[in-house]
Amino acid sequence: MSKFIRHDHCPSCGSHDNLAVYDDHEYCFSEGCGRYVNYERSPTITSESPKPKKSLYSLPTTTQPSIRHRNLDASTVQKYKVTVFDDPDSEVEVIFPRFDNEGQHSANQIRMRGKEFRFQGDSASSTLFGQNYFPLS
């Protein structure tokens, strides 16, 4: 059985810490990367065929309501392209979109009812929520 050593930077996809380094191999868990190096068999790098990217919840196309318990009015929700699920039977409460440095929708932070969070998409290329409205230069 392999022994986990550390998380590391992946040279194939650029993720900051999705490369798991074990005593006999390394594997990148970034979606679509699949970098695998087996230290015991050969020092060459192999790769799985890229995993198909999971589709993201899309950005809202209709006017979204305010999030009253967070004191976020509807204009703020609209500006940041947040999706609000008003249906009390829905598992999802709110979706906060994340964008990459080029402004492309690359991931979602999903708040489930009961304060559980899930992440959907490419975390390696995503900026912080709302950062796309505050360019670096």
Describe the structure in your own words.
With 137 residues, the chain is mainly β. It folds into two domains: 4-47; 68-133, no CATH class. Helix content is 4%, strand content 31%. It has one helix and nine strands; from the N terminus they run βββββαββββ. Strands 1-2-3-4-5 form a five-stranded antiparallel β-sheet, with no helix packed on it. It has a four-stranded antiparallel β-sheet with strand order 6-7-8-9, with no helix packed on it. A hairpin with a 2-residue loop joins β2 (19-22) and β3. The termini are far apart. The relative contact order is 0.14.
* Biggest sheet statistics: 5 strands, antiparallel
Average pLDDT reading: 83
Compressed to H and E, one letter per element, the order equals EEEEEHEEEE
Residue fraction in strands: 25-35%
What best-fitting shape do the alpha-carbon axes yield? elongated
Task: Give the uncertain stretches in residue-range form.
Answer: none
Quickly count the helices. 1
Q: Tell me the total number of β-strands.
A: 9
End-to-end separation: 48 Å
Structural class, from helix and strand content?
Answer: mainly beta
Strand order of the largest sheet: 1-2-3-4-5
**Rg calculated over all Cα atoms:** 19 Å
As a percent range, the share of helical residues equals: under 10%
How many domain units? 2
Topology (elements, then pairings):
Layout lengths: L3 E5 L10 E4 L2 E4 L6 E4 L6 E3 L26 H6 L3 E2 L7 E8 L5 E8 L4 E5 L16
Antiparallel strand pairs: 1-2, 2-3, 3-4, 4-5, 6-7, 7-8, 8-9
